[in-house]
Prior knowledge:
By secondary structure, this protein is of the alpha/beta class. It folds into three domains: 3-30 and 300-404, Aspartate Aminotransferase, domain 1; 40-295, Type I PLP-dependent aspartate aminotransferase-like (Major domain) (Aspartate Aminotransferase, domain 2, 3-Layer(aba) Sandwich); 410-544, Sufe protein. Chain: A, CATH 3.90.1010. The protein has helices at residues 3-11, 38-51, 61-81, 95-110, 129-138, 155-161, 184-193, 213-216, 241-246, 282-297, 302-317, 344-353, 366-372, 388-403, 418-426, 431-442, 487-500, 505-510, 513-520, 534-546; strands at 19-20, 23-24, 26-27, 89-92, 116-120, 141-145, 166-172, 197-201, 220-224, 235-239, 257-259, 267-268, 322-324, 334-339, 356-357, 359-361, 377-381, 458-460, 465-472, 478-484. The protein has a seven-stranded mixed sheet, with helices on both faces. It is globular and about 70 Å long. The chain binds 4'-deoxy-4'-aminopyridoxal-5'-phosphate. The site of 4'-deoxy-4'-aminopyridoxal-5'-phosphate has 13 residues, from helix 4.
Amino acid sequence: MTSEQTTQIRNLFPLLNQKVNGNDCIYFDNAATTQKPIAVIDAIKAYYQTSNANVHRAAHTLASAATTEFENSRKAVQTFINAKHAHEIIWTSGTTEAINLVAQSWGSSQLVAGDEVIVSHAEHHANIVPWQQLEQQLGIQVKVIELLDTGVLDLSSFERLITDRTRLVAVSHISNVIGKCNPIEHIIQRAKQVGAKVLIDAAQSIAHYPLDVQQLDCDFLVFSAHKMYGPTGVGCLFGKSELLELMPPYKTGGEMIKKVSFNSGTTFNVLPHKFETGTPNIAGIISFRAAISFIQAQKEASGYEASLTAYAYQQLLSIPSLNMLTNGQPDIAIFSFNIAGEHQQDVATYLDSKGVAVRVGHHCAMPLMEYLGVQGCIRISLALYNTKAEVDHVVELLRNFLNQGVKKVAKASVNHSKEKIMTLFESAKSWDAKHRQIMLLGKTLPTMADELKTDETLINGCESAAWIHITIDRESKVNIVAFSQAKIIKGLLVIVLAAVNGKTVENVSTFDFHEYFNDLGLLQHLSPSRGNGLLAIVEKIKRAVNKPL
Ligand code: PMP
């Protein structure tokens, strides 16, 4: 792809043209969700402006137009994955719901105690917890495939696990952390030899690799529209017709019935409606077709994606202290790593202050983090609209962060007061300056005695952990000792402690953290969407002073 073609693609995505924290937006969190092309946004708008009506329910013209569009999207998905029948495509709210549907409908009706379901250590929680639930409900056994040092499923481990009690193998085509293709063709063929069914979680792969469910011969395939340049709240379950026919409804209510009667009983609708109760995400489903068209139109860009992946991998590896979680270059542009001596969250917040979106934490794959012996990692994930220039810029930012950035700051005083903090932040206008100020303050947090770091004092955010130990003395004064490995959290803790330490229980219980953070221009850190757990820290303080022990 030429640079003009890349620019043309970027121009289809309006969000990418905005500034974030005063910098050009660099969106490197595509494995979480991709941005949406204008065609998808227009399709949502057009639906609401011209054909909004409920589907499958009324005979009027608008309803019939909406239903036609809705079913055309189903046909588009059918063609996209080469399913034999349109009714093998069931709309769900996403991959998670699709897997839950299979677990609760197929699993609950077909499995009995002692049956085995095989997953892998690399699965997203969405492909672990539904099976663990069945373990509890039915007494089935969940077995887990080991990984090679590349992060790919170890087929010899699979071979050791598979038995004639194996009823289902549920694995991802590509893990959201590892970015490498698993040998699903082999797994499907081997599972068939023992009569087991196979569910493929294609959430990460389907935007990059065309999948043909007839050729693969998998029993179930699941994915989400929002990782394919489509809308959120829309997902698909492909299931082979004969299996879906056997399966009982998953949710019940309107539309999924043929007849409802208090006298002569209730019967269920035919496929696919048996699994689609209630009003669906009509606008989302209709606009999903535009996303599929976008992917199909970019087929020739697969060479570009491959070269971008190879380039980004080499550039990242050129940072000596950067350690990839697994060996070898990923097949799609998902790079998960840690940087020696740096907390993942500090790296992410630094990049965020420069307009770069990456994800850190356990990535909804806690068992994988445990398996690889890390608490979490930084993940950079690219899409078609990302460029080598963006990669260069981010690599340069990482080098800056490591070389001079936040590391070479002097140790400052530890005596902070709320007023002093307010003064410091008055002069820090930009997000960049505020970020630097937080990091400087983090340097001043005294270390916490190891014996105070207990399960009771631990607060687990998604991205980092913190410990907070609260005591109240005889004069009702609050004294808090707190710690975190992430410098950004240390800084935020200094800000919190400056406002509450040495104050009376009454003062602290009426203290308005919301207003305080708002005045500092840091309100976003108290948002429930932040993975850093600051909100939980503040809530813990509030609970302690409202119910002193
Ligand atoms: N499986 C994989 C491999 C994923 O990457 C994700 C999303 N991160 C999911 C399942 C869950 O998808 P959703 O949140 O869209 O239901």
